[in-house]
Amino acid sequence: IAQNRSIKFEHVTFKEIKAKALKENKLIFIDAYTSWCGPCKQMAKNVFTNDTVADYYNKNFVNAKIDMEKGEGIEIAKEYDVRCYPNLLFVDGNGKIVHRVAGGMSPKEFIALGEETKSPEKCFAYYAKNYEANKTNSDFLRKYIYAKDGTCLETGDLVKSYFALQKESDLTNED
Q1: pTM: predicted TM-score of the whole model, two decimal places
Q2: Is 37 a catalytic residue?
Q3: How far apart are the first and last CA of the chain?
Q4: Number of helices (H) and strands (E), helices first, in the chain?
Q5: 40 an active-site residue?
Q6: Blockwise average pLDDT, block size 10, the chain, 175 residues
Q7: Among residues 37, 84, 123, 152, which one is catalytic?
Q8: Environment class of 30 (CB within 10 Å of its CB; exposed 0-12, middle 13-18, buried 19+)
């Protein structure tokens, strides 16, 4: 069955995309990709063209597809510390990161990712913002490690902090 819808990506400057997001009171979804990235191509071909995905993302987000190795993408990659591809970023109209993950996924997973952005306590920014107040909370650290690990960002210091908080008896439990 031929699909006839796809995510509508904005083809303007990032400044204009942020202004549109503010005006429409929406988050921005950024497909941070490169031309040589296999999973990026898979997402473009099989996920962004899925009718259900397209309808959901076009309704809920201002969408941007930005090559991180060209033009504005080079600075955006630096600003958001993009280290692997695809990096799927959700930012507000002021340019602040709300949520992020890295890697390809199925249409169902991609819609679930969009839904996650509606729950602040599930978003990457929640953990980054609340880290200082919770850096001695093992449960919080464990969740932050999982959230950060899914972004290609460094987790080594968090892991060290987590294990430093564990009692010897904790080292054999499933977590």
Answers
A1: 0.91
A2: yes
A3: 44
A4: 8, 5
A5: yes
A6: 79 97 98 97 97 97 98 97 96 97 97 95 94 93 91 92 86 78
A7: 37
A8: buried
